[in-house]
Sequence to fold (79 residues):
Amino acid sequence: MPTPENVKTYIEQGLECTHIEVQGDGRHFEAVIVSPAFEGKGMVQQHQLVYQALGDRMHEEVHALSMKTFSPEEWAKQI
Fold:
């Protein structure tokens, strides 16, 4: 079973991230992801980029992923 750290690494390997937090129990995960790749994209497009970064792992290792995605500009307004 993957750990939250594994999932974080998987995402970082396929997507440039300026901030990422992942929590979970080995099957279900929650993530906060900040990436410049999200600039100008809607939430669905942002989530698709994360799913692309995870690739086949999303079906084979990660049972469920709940995420909040932000561009760096959006993230700056959150903190």
Remarks:
- The chain has a mean pLDDT of 95.
- The radius of gyration is 12 Å.
- The chain has four helices and three strands.
